[in-house]
Design goal:
- This protein is mainly α.
- The protein has a domain at 1-55.
- The chain has helices at residues 9-28, 33-53, 59-80, 86-107, 114-131, 137-154.
Length: 155
């Protein structure tokens, strides 16, 4: 069996899956909440470590994926903190999605399947129409930006 440190993604799978399982267990079982606090960010950090060890076929692609994973970890932590870190978490995840979009752009063209883009524009619009009435005014612009980023990722 390959060691997780040798850069083979398959070698990382058991550690990532176990960490994710403990994170889910901690989220679901009241007495084990600490597991979630440890293993949720650890899972993303293990994926980050795997990404850093992969062969560097496209340096810019990997760099933007790594940036996105760091920002995703920060988003997880902000949302888990006992303080109200929602806006910081949302901002971290928004920046992570933008980093992923840049990485994906390095791998290929922008939204080649135009029909899929149209579908995601409609879905994103429906989500915003549904969310809009319940959003506080100070969150409307960040939520719009986040929904657009998510639609872009999906497309």
């Amino acid at each position: 069996m390959e060691k997780p440190t040798d850069g083979n993604p398959i070698g990382w799978t058991p550690a990532i899956a176990a960490s994710a399982a403990f994170a889910i267990l901690g989220a679901e079982l009241e007495g084990l909440r600490e597991l979630h606090y440890v293993f949720k960010p650890l899972t993303t950090l293990l994926i980050l470590a795997m990404a850093c060890r992969l062969p560097d076929g496209s340096g810019l692609y990997r760099r933007w994926i790594v940036i996105g994973l760091v920002l995703s970890t920060a988003g997880d932590v902000f949302l888990m903190l006992p303080l109200d870190g929602f806006v910081f978490g949302l901002g971290s995840f928004l920046l992570a999605h933008l980093a992923y979009l840049v990485a994906l752009r390095k791998q290929g063209g922008w939204w080649r399947a135009r029909a899929a883009v149209a579908v995601y524009v409609v879905i994103a619009s429906c989500v915003l129409v549904w969310l809009w009435p319940g959003l506080p005014n100070d969150l409307k612009l960040p939520v719009v930006a986040y929904v657009i980023a998510l639609a872009g990722m999906a497309a």
